[in-house]
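**Protein record**
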Amino acid sequence: MPLYKLAEFDPNYRETFGGDDVKSLDLYTEGGMKIGSVAEALVDQDGRFRYLVIDTSLDSIGKKILLPIGLAHINYPAKRVEVDGLNKQQVEHLPEYREGITVNEDYEKQIRHVFRTSSNDSASAHETFSYEKEPNLYNLNEQSHQTIRLYEERLIAQKHRVKSGEVAVSKHIETQTAQVTVPITKERVLIERVLPTQIGTVVDSNSLQFQEGEVVRIELYEETPDIHKEAFVREEVRVKKVVDRHTVEAQDTIRREELDIDTTGELYVDETGEQKPEKI
């Protein structure tokens, strides 16, 4: 997990801490011996303090070391930091911290090895490391570092596609009686007996040739109706789907938890909700 200098993570950290600056404090043992001063603080990506950079001044030893935050007790009014059990031998065995150095897993392992007991060291030798597994080294006191979750209800709008109906389009046959009028013609023979135009005229009988069986033929025609059925396209019906869009509104009563803060005295309280390094 990457670590950041305090000012790199939060350039306005002093305002976040209400004007207090951990980098201005001296480091003392529980017995009251000054070991050095705080030169820097390193925080993780969530703004949690993990190490204090200590500029030591023990006899001939003068180097910067990383002190796990769980071993430090910050006292801003007294402008000092007290450390549990840090001695000269531990300072000698701790790796030196230099400007620009990368605090990687191997570097942190060396630090933990100095402060761990032999039993703790063997118990976690084959486990994947996380700061939560070393509460004595990296966690703040639970009374000064607790989490309360605020919950709220929200209306979640979702859509489900359900079958609302079905339309079947088919054909059927209807019958009806149709009538059509066709004018036709029919020929017939009309035989009329009329008076001759030359009635009374004498005809020479010797010049006449009486013929028996003379026949006059007249062909008669008539029209007959030809009635038959033919199919034609009467109309076309197209079947398709269209989508109608509209908005459905719903309302309900939802609940939301808000934070109530009750303090006594002049305390630092940050309610901005911004990601800030947690004050120690």
